[in-house]
Amino acid sequence: MEAILVLTHADETGSALTKASLETVTAGLELAARLSAPLAIGIVAVDATAAASLPSTGARLLAVSGEAFAQARYASDAAAVEALARAAQATIVLAPGTSRFTRVAAGVAHRLGGFLDTHITALGGTDTIEATRWFYRQRIEAVLSRDARPWFLLLDAGTHAAFAGEHGAAPVEQIAVQLPALRTTVSGLRAPEQGQQTIRPDAKLLFVAGAGWTKKQHDGQAHPAEAGKLILNFLHATGASLGSSKSLVDQGGEGEPVLPFLTHMNQVGQTGATPRHAKGLSTCCHGEEPHVVGWRFVGERRAINMDPNCGWARGKADVVYVADAFEVMAKVNALLEAAKA
Ligand SMILES: Cc1cc2nc3c(=O)[nH]c(=O)nc-3n(C[C@H](O)[C@H](O)[C@H](O)COP(=O)(O)OP(=O)(O)OC[C@H]3O[C@@H](n4cnc5c(N)ncnc54)[C@H](O)[C@@H]3O)c2cc1C
Protein backbone atom coordinates (compact mmCIF):
# COMPACT_ATOMS: atom_id res chain seq x y z
CA MET A 1 0.00 0.00 0.00
CA GLU A 2 1.16 3.55 -0.68
CA ALA A 3 2.05 5.86 2.22
CA ILE A 4 1.56 9.51 1.29
CA LEU A 5 3.49 12.45 2.67
CA VAL A 6 2.52 16.04 1.90
CA LEU A 7 5.35 18.50 2.45
CA THR A 8 4.51 22.03 3.56
CA HIS A 9 6.50 25.04 4.69
CA ALA A 10 5.79 28.28 6.48
CA ASP A 11 5.38 31.62 4.72
CA GLU A 12 7.53 34.67 5.47
CA THR A 13 5.64 35.34 8.74
CA GLY A 14 6.88 31.95 9.99
CA SER A 15 3.56 31.22 11.67
CA ALA A 16 1.30 30.21 8.77
CA LEU A 17 1.70 27.82 5.86
CA THR A 18 2.07 29.14 2.32
CA LYS A 19 -0.98 29.04 0.04
CA ALA A 20 0.84 26.62 -2.27
CA SER A 21 1.41 24.33 0.74
CA LEU A 22 -2.30 24.38 1.57
CA GLU A 23 -3.13 23.57 -2.06
CA THR A 24 -0.86 20.52 -1.80
CA VAL A 25 -2.68 19.47 1.39
CA THR A 26 -5.93 19.40 -0.63
CA ALA A 27 -4.26 17.25 -3.30
CA GLY A 28 -2.90 14.90 -0.61
CA LEU A 29 -6.29 14.53 1.11
CA GLU A 30 -7.97 13.72 -2.22
CA LEU A 31 -5.30 11.19 -3.18
CA ALA A 32 -5.27 9.49 0.25
CA ALA A 33 -9.07 9.18 0.20
CA ARG A 34 -9.05 7.72 -3.29
CA LEU A 35 -6.32 5.16 -2.54
CA SER A 36 -7.45 4.55 1.08
CA ALA A 37 -3.81 5.20 1.96
CA PRO A 38 -2.37 6.68 5.17
CA LEU A 39 -1.54 10.39 4.96
CA ALA A 40 1.07 12.36 6.85
CA ILE A 41 1.67 16.09 6.54
CA GLY A 42 5.21 17.30 7.11
CA ILE A 43 5.86 20.89 8.15
CA VAL A 44 9.13 22.77 7.81
CA ALA A 45 8.98 25.98 9.86
CA VAL A 46 10.84 27.95 12.50
CA ASP A 47 8.19 26.80 14.97
CA ALA A 48 5.47 24.22 14.50
CA THR A 49 2.60 26.57 15.38
CA ALA A 50 2.32 26.99 11.61
CA ALA A 51 0.40 23.71 11.91
CA ALA A 52 -2.51 25.64 13.42
CA SER A 53 -4.02 25.82 9.93
CA LEU A 54 -4.23 22.01 9.73
CA PRO A 55 -6.12 20.62 12.77
CA SER A 56 -9.11 19.21 10.89
CA THR A 57 -7.38 17.16 8.20
CA GLY A 58 -7.25 13.92 10.19
CA ALA A 59 -3.72 13.34 8.89
CA ARG A 60 -0.67 12.59 11.03
CA LEU A 61 1.26 15.84 11.52
CA LEU A 62 5.05 15.76 11.55
CA ALA A 63 7.19 18.84 12.02
CA VAL A 64 10.79 19.83 11.66
CA SER A 65 11.28 23.12 13.44
CA GLY A 66 13.94 25.35 14.93
CA GLU A 67 15.96 28.40 14.04
CA ALA A 68 17.86 26.51 11.30
CA PHE A 69 14.58 26.17 9.36
CA ALA A 70 13.50 29.81 9.54
CA GLN A 71 15.07 30.49 6.15
CA ALA A 72 15.45 28.47 2.99
CA ARG A 73 18.93 26.93 2.67
CA TYR A 74 19.84 23.78 0.74
CA ALA A 75 21.63 21.83 3.47
CA SER A 76 19.06 22.36 6.24
CA ASP A 77 15.97 22.05 4.01
CA ALA A 78 17.25 18.87 2.35
CA ALA A 79 17.97 17.36 5.77
CA ALA A 80 14.47 18.34 6.95
CA VAL A 81 12.71 16.85 3.92
CA GLU A 82 14.76 13.65 4.14
CA ALA A 83 13.94 13.25 7.84
CA LEU A 84 10.22 13.80 7.20
CA ALA A 85 10.14 11.32 4.30
CA ARG A 86 11.91 8.68 6.41
CA ALA A 87 9.67 9.29 9.45
CA ALA A 88 6.54 8.89 7.32
CA GLN A 89 8.03 5.93 5.42
CA ALA A 90 6.57 7.67 2.43
CA THR A 91 6.25 6.04 -0.95
CA ILE A 92 4.58 9.12 -2.46
CA VAL A 93 5.77 12.61 -1.53
CA LEU A 94 3.68 15.56 -2.71
CA ALA A 95 5.24 19.00 -2.39
CA PRO A 96 4.33 22.46 -3.65
CA GLY A 97 6.57 23.59 -6.49
CA THR A 98 7.83 26.56 -4.47
CA SER A 99 11.42 27.73 -4.88
CA ARG A 100 12.15 26.33 -1.40
CA PHE A 101 11.10 22.75 -2.19
CA THR A 102 12.03 22.80 -5.88
CA ARG A 103 15.61 23.44 -4.84
CA VAL A 104 15.93 20.39 -2.59
CA ALA A 105 13.37 17.81 -3.80
CA ALA A 106 15.51 16.28 -6.57
CA GLY A 107 18.50 15.89 -4.24
CA VAL A 108 16.42 14.25 -1.52
CA ALA A 109 14.68 11.92 -4.01
CA HIS A 110 18.15 10.83 -5.13
CA ARG A 111 19.34 10.28 -1.54
CA LEU A 112 16.34 8.03 -0.93
CA GLY A 113 16.79 6.12 -4.19
CA GLY A 114 13.53 7.53 -5.51
CA PHE A 115 12.34 9.58 -8.47
CA LEU A 116 11.07 13.11 -9.00
CA ASP A 117 8.60 14.69 -11.41
CA THR A 118 7.91 18.41 -11.53
CA HIS A 119 5.12 20.74 -12.72
CA ILE A 120 2.37 18.28 -11.88
CA THR A 121 -1.08 19.77 -12.47
CA ALA A 122 -3.40 16.87 -11.57
CA LEU A 123 -3.37 13.49 -9.86
CA GLY A 124 -5.68 10.80 -11.18
CA GLY A 125 -6.01 7.03 -11.43
CA THR A 126 -8.13 4.63 -9.43
CA ASP A 127 -5.74 1.97 -8.06
CA THR A 128 -2.53 3.47 -9.38
CA ILE A 129 -1.29 7.06 -9.37
CA GLU A 130 -1.39 8.97 -12.62
CA ALA A 131 0.27 12.37 -12.58
CA THR A 132 -0.49 14.91 -15.27
CA ARG A 133 1.89 17.56 -16.58
CA TRP A 134 2.30 19.66 -19.70
CA PHE A 135 5.22 19.59 -22.11
CA TYR A 136 6.38 21.73 -25.00
CA ARG A 137 5.11 25.02 -23.60
CA GLN A 138 1.72 23.71 -22.53
CA ARG A 139 0.92 22.17 -25.91
CA ILE A 140 1.11 18.47 -25.01
CA GLU A 141 -0.48 17.06 -21.88
CA ALA A 142 1.08 13.82 -20.59
CA VAL A 143 -0.08 11.37 -17.95
CA LEU A 144 2.78 9.71 -16.07
CA SER A 145 2.88 6.67 -13.84
CA ARG A 146 6.01 5.17 -12.28
CA ASP A 147 7.06 2.10 -10.32
CA ALA A 148 9.98 3.88 -8.63
CA ARG A 149 9.43 4.72 -4.96
CA PRO A 150 9.57 7.06 -3.19
CA TRP A 151 8.05 9.11 -5.97
CA PHE A 152 8.33 12.85 -5.38
CA LEU A 153 5.77 15.01 -7.18
CA LEU A 154 6.10 18.80 -7.23
CA LEU A 155 2.70 20.39 -7.82
CA ASP A 156 2.21 23.59 -9.80
CA ALA A 157 0.59 26.40 -7.81
CA GLY A 158 -3.03 27.20 -8.59
CA THR A 159 -3.98 23.66 -9.64
CA HIS A 160 -5.86 22.79 -6.42
CA ALA A 161 -8.01 24.76 -4.00
CA ALA A 162 -6.15 25.79 -0.84
CA PHE A 163 -7.16 23.68 2.18
CA ALA A 164 -9.33 25.77 4.46
CA GLY A 165 -10.16 23.84 7.61
CA GLU A 166 -10.71 25.12 11.10
CA HIS A 167 -7.83 26.72 12.93
CA GLY A 168 -6.72 25.47 16.34
CA ALA A 169 -4.14 23.42 18.16
CA ALA A 170 -3.28 20.07 16.59
CA PRO A 171 -0.98 17.40 18.01
CA VAL A 172 2.30 17.54 16.13
CA GLU A 173 5.12 14.99 16.25
CA GLN A 174 8.52 16.65 16.29
CA ILE A 175 11.01 14.93 14.01
CA ALA A 176 14.66 15.17 14.96
CA VAL A 177 17.06 16.16 12.20
CA GLN A 178 20.73 15.43 12.02
CA LEU A 179 21.99 18.66 10.49
CA PRO A 180 25.15 18.53 8.40
CA ALA A 181 27.76 21.26 8.78
CA LEU A 182 26.04 24.44 7.53
CA ARG A 183 28.31 26.42 5.28
CA THR A 184 25.65 28.95 4.24
CA THR A 185 24.54 31.67 6.62
CA VAL A 186 21.33 33.44 5.65
CA SER A 187 21.92 37.07 6.54
CA GLY A 188 18.50 38.33 5.39
CA LEU A 189 16.21 38.74 2.46
CA ARG A 190 16.34 41.43 -0.19
CA ALA A 191 13.11 41.73 -2.17
CA PRO A 192 11.26 44.54 -3.96
CA GLU A 193 8.90 46.45 -1.72
CA GLN A 194 5.33 45.18 -1.79
CA GLY A 195 4.14 48.12 -3.89
CA GLN A 196 6.89 47.60 -6.48
CA GLN A 197 6.35 43.90 -6.95
CA THR A 198 4.00 43.58 -9.92
CA ILE A 199 4.06 39.80 -10.44
CA ARG A 200 1.51 38.37 -8.01
CA PRO A 201 0.75 34.71 -8.75
CA ASP A 202 -1.95 34.60 -6.06
CA ALA A 203 -3.95 37.53 -7.49
CA LYS A 204 -7.42 36.79 -8.86
CA LEU A 205 -6.83 39.04 -11.87
CA LEU A 206 -4.07 39.12 -14.47
CA PHE A 207 -3.75 42.51 -16.18
CA VAL A 208 -1.77 42.32 -19.40
CA ALA A 209 -0.24 45.34 -21.08
CA GLY A 210 0.59 45.14 -24.78
CA ALA A 211 2.78 47.24 -27.06
CA GLY A 212 -0.18 49.46 -28.00
CA TRP A 213 0.32 51.41 -24.75
CA THR A 214 3.51 52.95 -26.14
CA LYS A 215 2.40 53.31 -29.79
CA LYS A 216 1.36 56.60 -31.40
CA GLN A 217 -2.26 57.33 -30.57
CA HIS A 218 -4.92 59.23 -32.57
CA ASP A 219 -3.24 62.58 -31.86
CA GLY A 220 -0.09 61.30 -33.59
CA GLN A 221 1.85 61.15 -30.28
CA ALA A 222 2.91 58.32 -27.96
CA HIS A 223 1.92 58.72 -24.29
CA PRO A 224 4.09 56.28 -22.32
CA ALA A 225 4.05 58.35 -19.10
CA GLU A 226 0.26 58.48 -19.05
CA ALA A 227 0.14 54.75 -19.92
CA GLY A 228 2.45 53.94 -16.98
CA LYS A 229 0.32 55.98 -14.59
CA LEU A 230 -2.94 54.36 -15.71
CA ILE A 231 -1.50 50.85 -15.40
CA LEU A 232 0.13 51.38 -11.99
CA ASN A 233 -2.97 53.09 -10.57
CA PHE A 234 -5.08 50.13 -11.67
CA LEU A 235 -2.62 47.65 -10.12
CA HIS A 236 -2.50 49.55 -6.83
CA ALA A 237 -6.28 49.76 -6.65
CA THR A 238 -6.94 46.09 -7.47
CA GLY A 239 -3.85 44.11 -6.42
CA ALA A 240 -3.87 42.52 -9.89
CA SER A 241 -0.79 40.83 -11.28
CA LEU A 242 0.93 42.49 -14.24
CA GLY A 243 1.69 40.55 -17.40
CA SER A 244 3.03 41.84 -20.68
CA SER A 245 3.35 40.91 -24.32
CA LYS A 246 6.81 40.15 -25.71
CA SER A 247 6.73 43.17 -28.00
CA LEU A 248 6.30 45.55 -25.08
CA VAL A 249 9.10 44.14 -22.92
CA ASP A 250 11.42 43.89 -25.93
CA GLN A 251 11.02 47.57 -26.77
CA GLY A 252 13.70 48.79 -24.38
CA GLY A 253 16.38 47.33 -26.63
CA GLU A 254 14.88 48.99 -29.69
CA GLY A 255 15.16 52.52 -28.30
CA GLU A 256 11.37 52.98 -28.26
CA PRO A 257 9.38 54.43 -25.35
CA VAL A 258 9.23 51.92 -22.50
CA LEU A 259 7.31 51.32 -19.31
CA PRO A 260 10.14 51.18 -16.74
CA PHE A 261 8.39 48.81 -14.32
CA LEU A 262 8.16 45.98 -16.89
CA THR A 263 10.80 43.29 -17.36
CA HIS A 264 10.96 40.01 -19.24
CA MET A 265 9.73 38.38 -16.02
CA ASN A 266 6.32 39.89 -16.81
CA GLN A 267 6.14 38.32 -20.27
CA VAL A 268 3.26 35.93 -20.83
CA GLY A 269 3.27 33.47 -23.71
CA GLN A 270 5.16 30.81 -25.58
CA THR A 271 8.55 32.17 -24.52
CA GLY A 272 7.21 33.65 -21.29
CA ALA A 273 5.06 32.56 -18.38
CA THR A 274 1.81 30.55 -18.27
CA PRO A 275 0.19 31.97 -15.14
CA ARG A 276 -3.03 30.74 -13.50
CA HIS A 277 -5.49 33.43 -12.55
CA ALA A 278 -9.29 33.30 -12.31
CA LYS A 279 -9.63 36.24 -14.69
CA GLY A 280 -7.50 38.08 -17.23
CA LEU A 281 -7.79 41.50 -18.86
CA SER A 282 -5.65 42.17 -21.89
CA THR A 283 -5.10 45.78 -22.94
CA CYS A 284 -3.46 47.19 -26.09
CA CYS A 285 -2.29 43.69 -27.02
CA HIS A 286 -3.11 42.11 -30.34
CA GLY A 287 -3.73 38.59 -29.04
CA GLU A 288 -1.40 36.69 -31.35
CA GLU A 289 -1.06 32.95 -30.81
CA PRO A 290 2.49 32.98 -29.30
CA HIS A 291 1.13 35.34 -26.66
CA VAL A 292 -2.29 33.74 -26.14
CA VAL A 293 -0.79 30.26 -25.58
CA GLY A 294 0.37 31.68 -22.22
CA TRP A 295 -3.28 32.32 -21.30
CA ARG A 296 -4.12 28.63 -21.43
CA PHE A 297 -4.97 28.41 -17.72
CA VAL A 298 -6.57 31.85 -17.28
CA GLY A 299 -10.27 31.34 -16.51
CA GLU A 300 -12.31 34.24 -17.89
CA ARG A 301 -10.58 36.34 -20.58
CA ARG A 302 -11.41 39.88 -21.58
CA ALA A 303 -9.57 42.23 -23.91
CA ILE A 304 -9.64 45.92 -24.79
CA ASN A 305 -8.46 46.68 -28.31
CA MET A 306 -9.33 49.37 -30.84
CA ASP A 307 -9.06 46.84 -33.65
CA PRO A 308 -12.29 44.82 -34.04
CA ASN A 309 -10.29 42.33 -36.08
CA CYS A 310 -7.60 41.66 -33.44
CA GLY A 311 -6.70 38.11 -32.40
CA TRP A 312 -8.80 38.29 -29.21
CA ALA A 313 -11.93 38.92 -31.30
CA ARG A 314 -11.34 35.67 -33.16
CA GLY A 315 -12.52 33.38 -30.41
CA LYS A 316 -9.60 33.88 -28.02
CA ALA A 317 -11.41 36.05 -25.47
CA ASP A 318 -14.82 35.72 -23.81
CA VAL A 319 -15.45 39.45 -24.09
CA VAL A 320 -13.71 42.03 -26.31
CA TYR A 321 -14.26 45.73 -25.75
CA VAL A 322 -13.55 47.53 -29.03
CA ALA A 323 -12.41 50.74 -27.39
CA ASP A 324 -9.48 52.99 -26.55
CA ALA A 325 -7.75 51.43 -23.52
CA PHE A 326 -6.52 54.86 -22.35
CA GLU A 327 -10.12 56.04 -22.03
CA VAL A 328 -11.45 52.77 -20.60
CA MET A 329 -8.76 52.42 -17.94
CA ALA A 330 -9.04 56.09 -16.91
CA LYS A 331 -12.77 55.53 -16.36
CA VAL A 332 -12.21 52.21 -14.55
CA ASN A 333 -9.61 53.84 -12.25
CA ALA A 334 -12.02 56.70 -11.49
CA LEU A 335 -14.75 54.18 -10.58
CA LEU A 336 -12.32 52.25 -8.35
CA GLU A 337 -11.27 55.50 -6.66
CA ALA A 338 -14.91 56.49 -6.11
CA ALA A 339 -15.74 53.04 -4.70
CA LYS A 340 -12.84 53.35 -2.21
CA ALA A 341 -13.87 56.83 -1.03
C1 LIG B 1 9.03 32.08 -31.54
C2 LIG B 1 8.18 33.22 -31.04
C3 LIG B 1 7.87 33.27 -29.69
C4 LIG B 1 7.08 34.30 -29.20
N1 LIG B 1 6.76 34.30 -27.86
C5 LIG B 1 5.95 35.28 -27.39
C6 LIG B 1 5.58 35.33 -26.01
O1 LIG B 1 5.99 34.48 -25.20
N2 LIG B 1 4.76 36.31 -25.60
C7 LIG B 1 4.29 37.28 -26.46
O2 LIG B 1 3.56 38.17 -26.00
N3 LIG B 1 4.65 37.28 -27.74
C8 LIG B 1 5.46 36.31 -28.23
N4 LIG B 1 5.82 36.36 -29.53
C9 LIG B 1 5.47 37.56 -30.33
C10 LIG B 1 4.03 37.58 -30.79
O3 LIG B 1 3.91 36.87 -32.00
C11 LIG B 1 3.57 39.05 -31.03
O4 LIG B 1 4.49 39.69 -31.86
C12 LIG B 1 3.42 39.87 -29.77
O5 LIG B 1 2.65 39.19 -28.81
C13 LIG B 1 2.74 41.18 -30.13
O6 LIG B 1 2.66 42.01 -29.01
P1 LIG B 1 1.48 43.08 -28.87
O7 LIG B 1 0.17 42.43 -29.18
O8 LIG B 1 1.62 43.73 -27.53
O9 LIG B 1 1.88 44.18 -29.94
P2 LIG B 1 1.24 44.59 -31.34
O10 LIG B 1 1.13 43.41 -32.23
O11 LIG B 1 2.00 45.77 -31.79
O12 LIG B 1 -0.24 45.02 -30.96
C14 LIG B 1 -0.56 46.21 -30.33
C15 LIG B 1 -2.07 46.27 -30.23
O13 LIG B 1 -2.43 47.40 -29.45
C16 LIG B 1 -3.67 47.89 -29.98
N5 LIG B 1 -3.81 49.29 -29.52
C17 LIG B 1 -3.00 50.35 -29.81
N6 LIG B 1 -3.45 51.44 -29.16
C18 LIG B 1 -4.54 51.07 -28.46
C19 LIG B 1 -5.44 51.76 -27.58
N7 LIG B 1 -5.31 53.06 -27.31
N8 LIG B 1 -6.45 51.05 -27.04
C20 LIG B 1 -6.62 49.72 -27.30
N9 LIG B 1 -5.79 49.04 -28.12
C21 LIG B 1 -4.78 49.70 -28.69
C22 LIG B 1 -3.52 47.72 -31.48
O14 LIG B 1 -4.80 47.69 -32.11
C23 LIG B 1 -2.77 46.39 -31.59
O15 LIG B 1 -3.69 45.32 -31.73
C24 LIG B 1 6.61 35.32 -30.06
C25 LIG B 1 6.91 35.26 -31.42
C26 LIG B 1 7.69 34.23 -31.90
C27 LIG B 1 8.01 34.19 -33.37
Explain what the structure shows.
The chain is α/β, with parallel strands linked by helices and 341 residues long. It contains seven helices and 14 strands. Strands 7-6-5-8-4-1-2-3-9 form a nine-stranded mixed beta sheet, with helices on both faces. It has a five-stranded parallel beta sheet with strand order 11-10-12-13-14. It starts with a strand and ends with a helix. The chain binds flavin-adenine dinucleotide. Flavin-adenine dinucleotide binds next to helix 5, helix 6, strand 13 and helix 7. Flavin-adenine dinucleotide (FAD) is lined by residues 210-212, 215, 217, 245-248, 267-272, 284-286, 288, 290-291, 294, 304-307, 310, 324-326.
Task: Indicate the mean pLDDT.
Answer: 93
Q: Which blocks of ≥5 consecutive residues have pLDDT under 50?
A: none
Briefly note the structural class of the backbone: alpha/beta
Strand order of the largest sheet: 7-6-5-8-4-1-2-3-9
Number of strands: 14
* Portion in strands: 15-25%
Distance between the termini: 59 Å
Q: Helical residue percent?
A: 10-25%
Helical segment count: 7
